[in-house]
Amino acid sequence: MDPSPSDTRTALLLAAMACFSERGFDGASMRMIADRAQRPLSLLAHYFGNKEGLYLAVFNLIFDRLYVELKTNPIPDAGFQPVDKADAEHILRDQIRSIFRRVVQCASQSDPIFECGVRLLPQEVRSPRPELFPIMISYIKPTAETIKNCIKVLRPELGDEQVTFLGISIFGQVAGHSMMRGLNQVVWGQVELAENQAQAAEWLVELCLQGLLAGPAPVRA
């Protein structure tokens, strides 16, 4: 990654992002990051305090880029509240499309922020560091609450645990196209899922919605 931006803070942040994505939090040292950025080590403490603060800043940048649309169309903390089933289906469709666009963008673009995000996010998804909880809650929780709100309207007979399970399943099914990219390529091969991202998103929307609206399969003895 080119460590030559004129803005010192940006140079340090990009260098940290590259080092963390290559070596993980524990394997990347502050000295290594300063050398990568070609800046004095003392500036890391000046701008970020310590390695934890730097790691936090890196994820703030990644999530800010991934969720850039929230700047113009923020989701309430408690999620969007559908007024009826038709509204719930419409909102849920939009949320699935949005998640899919985001993960495909993260996996396919040559932007170094997205490239590093693809490597860093799976590490933290498995076992998030407590320092990152506020960021994850701030960016992801409103979407999760929106999905749950829609499921409750579409399937009012379900309890909270069932609604949560279905919400996790929908989110994971869509996000898996990015988080499991390497495994998918090994198992399924280098195959495009659709002619374009919009078509692929619609396939996922229909898969999620049909499964949700069809109800549970009968239990056989």
Provide a descriptive summary of the structure in words.
The protein is mostly helical and 221 residues long. It has 2 domains: 1-49, Arc Repressor Mutant, subunit A (Orthogonal Bundle); 66-214, Tetracycline Repressor, domain 2 (Orthogonal Bundle), CATH 1.10.357. The protein has helices spanning 8-27, 30-37, 42-48, 51-66, 85-108, 112-126, 133-154, 160-179, 181-188, 197-214.
Please tell me how large the radius of gyration is.
20 Å
Tally of individual helices: 10
Largest beta sheet, briefly? none
Output the helix-strand order: HHHHHHHHHH
| Average pLDDT score | 84
Percentage of β-strand residues: under 5%
Distance between the termini: 59 Å
Low-confidence stretches: 1-5
Secondary-structure map with pairings?
Layout (H helix, E strand, L loop, with lengths): L7 H20 L2 H8 L4 H7 L2 H16 L18 H24 L3 H15 L6 H22 L5 H20 L1 H8 L8 H18 L7
Helix pairs in contact: 1-2, 1-4, 1-6, 3-4, 4-6, 5-6, 5-7, 5-8, 5-10, 7-8
